[in-house]
Design brief:
elongated, 63% strand, eight-stranded antiparallel barrel, mainly beta
């Protein structure tokens, strides 16, 4: 947690305008880890970021992700995020709810952080970590995804 706070402080010190008030769509892939297992995950997401000030933004995102193993189904995410602009991109904290990924699973609340880097024009690449919190009989899990998206 201390590293996260230090990272946010450093990013605020070198903040650039957030350049929000923009819609975005992306394709993404990565891994999900639960105790004793790591599986691939692919998905899509769409969102909108709103300017809070010259340096900070808040946003909403919906997503559809599929764990690449038998017995799973598409899980839908409903998330919020807040962050700041950095030279060449955005750093942000995220949190929200993800629906069940299998018939015997529960939906999960999650939180995490990510970074979007402007590649060229309106194209961006991103990396994001999220911890999904245990609820009922579902074990807590961690996801790391990378994505490629387009801003409008």
């Amino acid at each position: 947690m201390r590293k996260f706070i230090v990272s946010l402080a450093v990013s605020a010190a070198i903040a650039t305008p957030a350049l929000a008030n923009e819609a975005r769509i992306e394709a993404r892939g990565g891994v999900i880890t639960v105790p004793g297992s790591t599986e691939g995950i692919v998905g899509v997401a769409a969102g909108y970021d709103f300017d809070l000030s010259q340096d900070f933004f808040a946003g909403v995102e919906v997503s559809a992700d599929k764990i690449l193993t038998g017995g799973t189904k598409v899980a839908y995410g409903f998330n919020g995020r807040v962050g700041t602009g950095l030279v060449g991109g955005k750093i942000y904290a995220t949190g929200g709810y993800t629906t069940e990924a299998c018939n015997l699973c529960n939906g999960l609340w999650g939180f995490g952080a990510g970074y979007e880097h402007n590649v060229v024009g309106k194209v961006y690449a991103k990396v994001e970590y999220r911890h999904l919190v245990k609820k009922g009989f579902t074990p807590s899990s961690d996801t790391v995804v990378t994505g490629l998206g387009l801003k409008f």
